Amino acid sequence: MTHTTRVRAVVSLQSRPILKSHARLQYDNVREAWALLSPERVFWPNEVSLDILRLCDGRHSVAQMIALLADQYAADEAEIAPDVTGFLQEWSDKFLVTL
Amino acid sequence: MNEPVLPPIGMLAELTHRCPLQCAYCSNPVELLKANREMDTAGWLSLFEQAADLGVLQVHLSGGEPTLRSDLVDLVACLARRGVYTNLITAGVGIAEGRIEALAAAGLDHIQLSFQGAFAATTEKIGNSLGAHQKKLETARRVRAAGLPLTINAPIHRHNMEEVPDFIDLALGLGAERLEIANVQYAGWALLNREALMPEREAVERQVQIVEEAQERLRGIMTIDFVTPDYFAIYPKPCMGGWARDAFMVAPDGTVLPCHAAATIKSLHFERFGDWSLSRIWHESAAFNAFRGTSWMQEPCRSCERQEIDWGGCRCQAMAIAGDAAATDPACVLSPLHARMGALINEAIRTKAADTTSGAFTYRRIGKVAEPTV
């Protein structure tokens, strides 16, 4: 069995998420909206998702992302942290983000 | 037809019908086009420019075998320049040295590589091509080495359904991000070979369990997309996401169709790119408007709360089984003809039991083969 060498990535505050090479965030001039392109699907992220995805550049740690987003939305870090980590875990599981 | 027509998102470009494999379930039409009917490079480039203008975000480059087009790198470069996501759907047999790297350099986003079996003997038998499996393994390695993301596509039917666990191991071992376990849809060559391909009910049920267990076990490790077999379904699939709703396909000669098999609906006429612009075809073609939205629907679809979930299912399957392209897809349990799907399964199994030589395929070949009658 070969799959023992592959394991599920689990998000932590030290993770530095980056969009996968096969996932591309780009502005669609026809629909005037941001689209995330992936092999079989096109996602239309909402404003909050977009702000998270834009920080998925491989430089920001999850802890830094939470701090920046809390600042941006004038919210408590503790309050938004589960939403941000939950989102990143989901998008990692969908193979759109590398943790 | 009062619903607004939205711009298309996806386009399947069947660049050629030429193919080194002869799979008996090919989704191409039974009447294949020869190379001299293929649209030239300028035609495809112009079509891709118009597609990008119209709002197409993803192009699936398929065939036949798309790598047999010598202009493939130029076609990919054009789409990449326009920001269109490109997915190459290949059999991965006989791709010249350096070609995958050139496609990656031109901006190709993703490769989908088919495996007819999880083992060499199966792949060679199904595709009727000696050495195909080994070549595919080599292609997968080259795709990974070129840094391209990889989906393994496994078309499933009676002759390889028991290999589903092995397909999963194969895809994991090849480093694929995604595996498609795609049960064969009975259109095109698969309809011609339906009796030889039809699985047994117990095998389908086992397969569903195996795939669902693997999806759970491999969450975050490898995505498994499961295309379930229509004949064993309760509700139909939203075929193409709804007729002419957000996707279309183009045949090698430039004919623009709402789906692969649409030409089996003989009452419809399909325009060719070049005679009409793509925008005009998308908005004005009578064939595209024939089953758009919900207003064309008959009962039980007309009053069904699922009508915008599955959009009536597959028009070509309605044509093939019900003899009426505007009927409810008989895959739906609410169709008055749903029992016919079960009868066709039983008939295929009975034929197989009575005749041990059945299960032989009519392999896909360019040339004259009669359209199947149902």
Automatic annotation (TrEMBL), chain A:
Keyword Cytoplasm: no
One function term, GO molecular function aspect: quinone binding
Single GO biological process annotation from the record: pyrroloquinoline quinone biosynthetic process
InterPro entries: PQQD, PqqD_bac, PqqD_sf
Pathway in which this enzyme or protein is active: Cofactor biosynthesis; pyrroloquinoline quinone biosynthesis
Entry keywords, A to Z: PQQ biosynthesis
Pfam families, per database record: PqqD (PF05402)
Subunit description: Monomer. Interacts with PqqE.
Matching NCBIfam families: PQQ_PqqD (TIGR03859)
Name by which UniProt lists this protein: Pyrroloquinoline quinone biosynthesis peptide chaperone PqqD
The species this protein was found in: Phyllobacterium endophyticum
From TrEMBL, chain B:
Enzyme class of the recorded protein, top EC level: oxidoreductase
Keyword set includes Ion transport: no
Cofactor names: [4Fe-4S] cluster
Entries under Pfam families matching the protein: Radical_SAM (PF04055), SPASM (PF13186)
Gene Ontology molecular functions: 4 iron, 4 sulfur cluster binding; cyclase activity; iron ion binding; oxidoreductase activity; S-adenosyl-L-methionine binding
Positions of the Radical SAM core domain: 5-222
Binding site for [4Fe-4S] cluster: 19, 23, 26
Protein name: PqqA peptide cyclase
Record organism: Phyllobacterium endophyticum
CDD domains tied to this protein: Radical_SAM
EC number(s) recorded for this UniProt protein: 1.21.98.4
InterPro entries named in the record: 4Fe4S-binding_SPASM_dom (IPR023885), Aldolase_TIM (IPR013785), Elp3/MiaA/NifB-like_rSAM (IPR006638), MoaA_NifB_PqqE_Fe-S-bd_CS (IPR000385), PQQ_synth_PqqE_bac (IPR011843), PqqE-like (IPR017200), Radical_SAM_PqqE_MftC-like (IPR050377), rSAM (IPR007197)
SMART domains, per the entry: Elp3
Subunit structure: Interacts with PqqD. The interaction is necessary for activity of PqqE.
Catalytic activity: [PQQ precursor protein] + S-adenosyl-L-methionine = E-Y cross-linked-[PQQ precursor protein] + 5'-deoxyadenosine + L-methionine + H(+)
Family statement: Belongs to the radical SAM superfamily. PqqE family.
Biochemical pathway: Cofactor biosynthesis; pyrroloquinoline quinone biosynthesis
One of the GO biological process terms: molybdopterin cofactor biosynthetic process
Coiled coil location: none
UniProt keyword annotations, A-Z: 4Fe-4S, Iron, Iron-sulfur, Metal-binding, Oxidoreductase, PQQ biosynthesis, S-adenosyl-L-methionine
Functional note: Catalyzes the cross-linking of a glutamate residue and a tyrosine residue in the PqqA protein as part of the biosynthesis of pyrroloquinoline quinone (PQQ).
Cofactor binding note: Binds 1 [4Fe-4S] cluster. The cluster is coordinated with 3 cysteines and an exchangeable S-adenosyl-L-methionine.
